[in-house]
């Protein structure tokens, strides 16, 4: 279990607290201090059940230099390009469990994977 986490984000802190309260201790990936490389982003996009564009925080003010709000959805390569340069634009938190991942917004979504993992055991 791996949580791509930003300690300054309330949603990310809430997801971590929910996991810990349920008895889980995920590996924390502080993606701001250790940005994901191209291979990691590519793997996450494989695991997530979303369009690549959903991985970018378009509403973040820093996104303005990369993408306009009314611009069509970004393709996989463009998303990876942006996030390798500007990891703060990574949607968060992201929970990865085995061969599945999801963007935990709202934070309670973590249980979609935690409950699925328990059912698989």
From TrEMBL:
InterPro entries: Arsenate_reductase-like, Thioredoxin-like_sf. The lineage of its organism: Bacteria, Pseudomonadati, Pseudomonadota, Gammaproteobacteria, Salinisphaerales. PROSITE patterns: ARSC. SUPFAM superfamilies: Thioredoxin-like. It comes from the Bacteria. Belongs to the ArsC family. Gene3D superfamilies: Glutaredoxin. It holds the Pfam family ArsC. This is ArsC/Spx/MgsR family protein.
């Amino acid at each position: 279990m791996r949580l791509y986490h930003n300690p300054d984000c309330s949603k990310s802190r809430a997801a971590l607290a929910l996991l810990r309260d349920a008895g889980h201790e995920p590996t924390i990936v502080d993606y701001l201090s250790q940005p994901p490389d191209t291979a990691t982003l590519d793997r996450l996009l494989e695991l997530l059940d979303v369009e690549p564009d959903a991985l970018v925080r378009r509403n973040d003010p820093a996104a303005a230099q990369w993408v306009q709000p009314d611009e069509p959805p970004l393709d996989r390569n463009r998303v990876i390009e942006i996030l390798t340069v500007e990891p703060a634009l990574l949607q968060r938190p992201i929970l990865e469990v085995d061969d599945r991942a999801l963007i935990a917004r709202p934070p309670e979504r973590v249980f979609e994977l935690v409950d699925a993992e328990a059912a698989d055991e």
